[in-house]
Amino acid sequence: MAIVKRTKGLQNVIDNMSESAFGEKQSEAIKKETCLFCKQPIGSFRDELSRREYSISGLCQNCQDEIF
Q: pLDDT digit of tens for each residue in the chain (68 aa)?
């Protein structure tokens, strides 16, 4: 799954913040197709909007449902 296109600087900021908060870089979680929050494989998504949200936040469908 591809990461949303961002400048390298912005992706570095997001990766540093996610690593500090969750112990893992957001870009690495997305490359591994795991959830940044629960660390589980992402599984399936309800719709394309939820799949796109994963590419932005790194959250699986279950974590998206709980958090949002």
A: 666 788 999 999 999 999 999 999 999 999 999 999 999 999 999 999 999 999 999 999 999 999 99
The parent domain of residue 25 ranges over: 8-67
Residue 62, helix vs strand vs coil: helix
Number of domains observed in the structure of the chain:
1
Secondary structure (H, E, C), 2-60 = CCCCCCHHHHHHHHHHHHHHHCCCHHHHHHHCECCCCCCECCCCCCHHHHHHHHHHCCC
